[in-house]
Amino acid sequence: MDRTAQRAPRPPGRTVAYEPSSAASPLHVRAAAVLEAGWTGTSTVPSRGLYPHQWSWDSAFIAIGLRHLSPLRAQTELETLLAAQWADGRIPHIVFNPSVPLDAYFPSPDFWRSSTAGRTAGAPRTVQTSGIVQPPVHALAAWLVHLSDPGLSRARGFLTRAYPRLAAWHGYLLHRRDLGGGGLVSVVHPWEQGMDNSPCWDRPLSRVTPAPARSFRRADLDHGAPEDRPTDLDYGRYVRLAAGYRDRGYADGPGEFAVEDPAFNALLAASEYALDRIARELGVTGTARRARADRLTAALVERLWEPAAGMFLCRDVRAGELIPERGVSGLIPLLLPALPRDLAATLVRTMCGPHFGLGGTTRLVPSYDLLGEAFDPHRYWRGPAWFNTNWLLEHGLRRHGERGRADALRKGMLHTAGASGFAEYVDPYTAQACGVTGFGWTAALTLDLLHDRPARGRNGLTATQGEDRP
Q1: pTM of the model as a whole
Q2: Per-residue pLDDT tens for 194-226?
Q3: What ranges does the record give for the region Disordered, renumbered to this chain (predicted)?
Q4: Strand pairing partners for 186?
């Protein structure tokens, strides 16, 4: 481990430790051990068994936690991912480790065929990747990593090298993925949105003819209980969609599945704010990124806000209608500083009401409507609580003045992370561990919550309007 791992860095004007002993606490030590076990030398795997490669938004969240252990390793995490960027600007959702056997994970590199099927889109020749993307958390992560040790970041030219790649990534999304024509980004596969098996996808997925079960082998079932994972029918549809996109040379355009998702677009807006801060740090002028982020927020309100539901909903671009399912994705825009005050208040009421139960029936926000017909407290993204979405909501609550609720959510996350063995996700009622334990972003975001004071304001994430904000 490099020398920067020996301390918890303190950016100017910010107190790092939430508790005097946080860096030496048992929870800190255990979380750090999870990240150490997943470190490959250039990046961190989410789970050695179930997810043995580098995942895009996992690495962004992991870097946010790693910055408290080793800013250099956090920078390296993001640099490894950005090095696999395609010429058209997309950052692939998986960067494959060539030393891992092909049958360890499906879909494997021989399914995606990035270097051949993705040649026209500019897939790299020296590394194998998938051809789809994941939510754009990367600029936000890069800015927070920079703040953890600005001196090291400037000495290495970290932001100087990352900025053009991040700008190209945002450009790809904004210019190639506005499939609905309303100023929002569309995802073309449920895996791109990151909440793979959400009931929000059931309606648009029903148009997709599933690939035959005999045509693929699900390696995920070797590491998790089948009742916690997507069904074979769902997986068959995922495979069919991915194969069709691959066979079109990863060309973007209206297909069988195109959805405008609130969380994906909210995270793009948050990362636009962060990219603005990076540009100002580098002395880059004329980017108008704050205005772009505000326009994304306005488009979210115009196209995805549903007053009757009290939250944002996904839009099925092909059908031209909102999808009447309440998923945690529709709460994530609470993160945005330009969100109208009345909408923010409504989101908080919805989060704490009967559909999500925060502070009442649940300690962590579930991934799907507790009252929904498709709710399942254990099945992947169909009800369990996840740590990355709750981390985002904790910041959103704090941003909009809900300090008491944010403190309670933070306390619940820390307790649940430790008690569950840093589970991939948990039953929202009982906090029973589901999926795999020792999960990368659960450990990383635990570290971040341990080190950042609740009254934070200048760390670039929860700052108020006019301060350093993402």
Answers
A1: 0.91
A2: 998 999 999 999 999 998 877 666 566 555 676
A3: 1-22
A4: 260
